[in-house]
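[step 3/7] inverse_fold.run input=structure_tokens len=95
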């Protein structure tokens, strides 16, 4: 269930993290990608790179005062605009 302010959905890929912000009606309002390069990186470097990317997404969730969701394995990025395509994993706004 989407909160009144909608949700930010993410899709993890080998070279980027795609994200989409949908309002409470499931309408796509904003989207983007965060490029990541984990090839030949140490575990410490990988952790740092992913931490920076996650911080960017959390900043967006805070700005939109929305919950944070992730697409299921059977969901593609084009479906992130639908509220039913996302499963809530973290509520940034509380309650």
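[step 3/7] decode complete -> sequence:
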């Amino acid at each position: 269930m989407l909160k009144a302010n909608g949700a930010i959905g993410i899709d993890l890929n080998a070279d980027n993290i795609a994200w989409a912000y949908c309002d409470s009606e499931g309408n796509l309002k904003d989207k983007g990608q965060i490029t990541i390069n984990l090839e030949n990186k140490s575990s410490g470097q990988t952790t740092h790179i992913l931490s920076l990317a996650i911080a960017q997404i959390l900043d967006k969730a805070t700005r939109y005062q929305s919950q944070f969701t992730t697409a299921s394995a059977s969901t593609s990025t084009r479906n992130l605009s639908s509220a039913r395509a996302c499963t809530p994993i973290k509520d940034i706004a509380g309650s």
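[step 4/7] annotate
The CA atoms of residues 11 and 52 lie 16 Å apart.
The first strand starts at residue 7 and ends at 12.
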